[in-house]
Specification:
694 residues, six-stranded mixed beta sheet, alpha+beta, Phenylalanyl-tRNA Synthetase, Chain B, domain 1, 20 helices, eight-stranded mixed beta sheet, Phenylalanyl-tRNA Synthetase, Chain B, domain 3
């Protein structure tokens, strides 16, 4: 936004202040002056270039900036009061207005100026526009631009004789509508809602963005229909981006224009058109305002403001600057109502910020915060992340941090069925950064596989990665999506140093299983592993398993990446093993940190136990059954041999375990250890039909 100090001086007295001082005061108030230029050749005017944040649409006009300066300088604001001399016929005999969609158009006002003479603007008007970066076109268009810069309200002038019928209506048109804008381009509108200004035959303007070629002001135009409206900022912003069309008008509307300014801006432009284009202003102004602005009431306490800011501002000083920027109050203690031009003020903390900004940030003393006397424990989710990071890093994995946005074709590359929840509940982005980042990830595997591809391109012999993040599952268009904390990891390549003493070997299933098993134990949520038919399709079913809790709740899955999925992601031949765990379930079920248990000072005793069981019985179930009796001093079970052959019956297998017994308070005798071992054998015989191998 460029502002002329000469122009600003029409609204607030700037006498006695150097341009540099004015720029400094605006910068201290949060409106950063990016450039100060002048005085220009042939005159003494200075021009400020101001960086205006998106939440301050009021600062995109001379009146808005003058209001800021009036509050900062404690000087009165000269409010414009247009005096329109009406000479023409009643406007209601010339045109009618309609708003078909009040959710997207809040207000529309109109003036008619007859018998104008289109020509160049007077030098003062053309020069003033040039100083703030706009070129002069003709007196009518220049006046609409001038009023937009002066009051912040974009206007549009139509050739009244080019309109079909007396009606001017605001309607919403769907995507795919074809419309030719003022720049001569035929556009197929792409937004879901394209708000249009229409005459009796169809659209004549893309509302809030650009007028149509079919009603532009031409050199022979005689009668002007002047439109001044207020639109839904979100609707204009979406339409501007979807259609790739940004203008000075859309820049203001998509940040939120002041609906109360529509009538005054139309009157100001009509006044100038009568004076500078020789027109006659029709009697009356049409104005549709179906939902007038109702200001909210914001509670305000000077004591709370000072406590928050760490300042000692006098209440009367706060009230003075509030009144200067348009805040109103019914009386002491009744709160303040923000004006229509300040949509950014909605909470008490916003008023605290205004007090600090306008009374000077430099008046807030530097104080150290007073921390609480006691230390608060971190939330459980933070502790879980920290413990998972520590354990995975200690296991040799590096943390991967990737975007939550992934390629929409992930479902095809992973081989997901059409009814897969990961495909059905995908959440697309309305405004993706690129085609490669079009949806929010419903699972972590695509992110890790993309990271693996990068590592393979750099010829990394081993890729060992983990990622802690969220996955997103859609709950429908009108509901918040489901977000779940997830822990995922990946191993691919060769393990070991690769020397004569310890040759390298490819990563295998037992590496990823051991990783998940150790992690679940570290998080005090031991996992059990089963082969199930409902594993995700991107795993090789021969080397995959589901991870569950003791009560059967599904914790996650792990396994080798299927060859078709590996090819779809462009990976090399090296096998990739992945796991993905539901961290929300761990937080819900894990009892917290395990209490420390001291080591026994008494020696352990080992016994080997070889059992013949059914061939399809998982060894993990046998191991879990051994630990069911909590009275036994059994501290470790190691499966060290598996045998299937002529020495055992058909359909059977031999499992050899090494059992370690250790008491915390005495040395175990051989008779006690033998009794423990025999008891376990009897228990397993009853549970699984296990037989001691002879």
């Amino acid at each position: 936004m460029k502002a002329s100090l000469e122009w600003l001086g029409e609204f607030v007295d700037l006498g006695g202040l150097a341009p540099q001082e004015i720029a400094h005061k605006l910068t201290l108030a949060g409106l950063e002056v990016e450039e100060l230029a002048g005085p220009l050749e042939g005159g003494g005017d200075w021009v400020l270039k101001i960086g205006v944040t998106p939440n301050r649409p009021d600062a995109l006009s001379m009146l808005g900036l003058a209001r800021e300066l009036a509050a900062l300088l404690d000087r009165p604001l000269k409010r414009p009061a247009p005096q329109v001399r009406e000479e023409g016929p009643d406007i209601r005999t010339l045109v009618q207005l309609a708003i078909d969609d009040p959710d997207h158009c809040f207000r529309i006002a109109a003036r008619v100026i007859q018998d104008v003479a289109i020509g160049p603007s007077p030098p003062w008007l053309a020069d003033r526009l040039a100083r703030v970066g706009l070129r002069s076109i003709n007196n009518i268009v220049d006046i609409t631009n001038y009023v937009m810069l002066e009051l912040g309200q974009p206007l549009h002038a139509y050739d009244l004789e080019e309109l079909a019928g007396p009606l001017l209506a605001v309607r919403a048109y769907p995507a795919g509508t074809v419309f030719t804008t003022l720049d001569g381009q035929e556009r197929r509108l792409a937004a879901e809602v394209n708000l249009m200004i229409c005459d009796g035959a169809g659209p004549v303007g893309l509302a809030g963005i650009m007028g149509g070629l079919n009603s532009e002001i031409k050199p022979h135009t005689r009668h002007i229909l002047l439109e001044s409206a207020a639109f839904n900022a979100v609707s204009i912003r979406r339409a501007s981006r979807a259609n790739g069309l940004s203008t000075d008008a859309s820049h203001r509307f998509e940040r939120g224009s002041d609906p109360e300014m529509c009538g005054q801006a139309a009157d100001r432009a009509a006044e100038l058109m009568r004076a500078l284009a020789g027109g006659r202003v029709a009697s009356g102004r049409l104005d549709l305002y179906p939902r007038p602005y109702v200001p909210p009431v914001i509670e305000f306490s000077p004591a709370r403001a000072n406590a928050y800011l760490g300042a000692a501002h006098a209440p009367e000083d706060m009230f003075r600057v509030f009144r200067a920027i348009g805040l109103e109050t019914a009386g002491p203690g009744d709160g303040f109502s923000p004006p229509s031009w300040r949509p950014d003020l909605s909470r008490e903390v916003d008023l605290w910020e205004e007090a600090a900004r306008l009374l000077g940030f430099d008046k807030i003393p530097a104080t150290l915060p007073q921390p609480p006397a006691r230390r608060l424990d971190p939330p459980p989710a933070w502790r879980l992340r920290a413990e998972a990071r520590d354990w995975l890093a200690a296991s040799g994995l590096a943390e991967s941090i990737t975007y939550s946005f992934i390629n929409p074709n992930f479902a095809d590359r992973l081989g997901l069925a059409e009814d897969s929840p990961w495909r059905r509940r995908t959440l697309p982005l309305l405004n993706p950064l690129s085609e490669e980042q079009g949806v929010l990830r419903p699972l972590m595997a695509p992110s890790l596989l993309q990271a693996l591809k990068v590592n393979q391109a750099h010829n990394r012999p081993l890729t060992a990665l983990y990622e802690l993040g969220r996955v997103f599952l859609s709950n429908g268009p009108d509901r918040q999506p489901e977000e779940r904390e997830t822990i995922a990891g990946l191993l691919s390549g060769s393990m070991g140093p690769g020397n004569w003493l310890e040759p390298s070997r490819p990563v295998d299933f037992w590496d990823i299983k051991g990783l998940v098993e150790g992690l679940s134990l570290a998080l005090n949520c031991p996992a059990e592993f089963q082969r199930t038919p409902d594993l995700p399709p991107w795993y090789d079913p021969a080397e995959a398993a589901a991870a569950s809790l003791a009560d059967g709740a599904r914790l996650g899955h792990l396994g080798r990446l299927d060859k078709r999925a590996a090819q779809a992601f462009g990976l090399k031949e090296a096998a990739a093993y992945l796991f993905e765990l539901d961290a929300e379930l761990i937080l819900e079920r894990a009892p917290g940190r395990r209490p420390f248990a001291g080591w026994s000072k008494f020696p352990p005793a080992d016994r080997d136990l070889a059992l013949v069981v059914d061939a399809d019985l998982p060894a993990a179930l046998v191991t879990a059954a051994m630990f069911q009796d909590k009275t036994l001093p059994l501290v470790d079970v190691l499966l060290f041999d598996l045998y299937q052959g002529s020495q055992v019956p058909a359909g059977k297998k031999s499992l050899a375990f090494r059992l370690t017994f250790q008491s915390p308070d005495k040395t175990l005798t051989d008779d006690e250890v033998n009794a423990f071992s025999a008891g376990l054998t009897d228990h397993l015989a009853r549970r699984f039909g296990a037989v001691l191998r002879s």
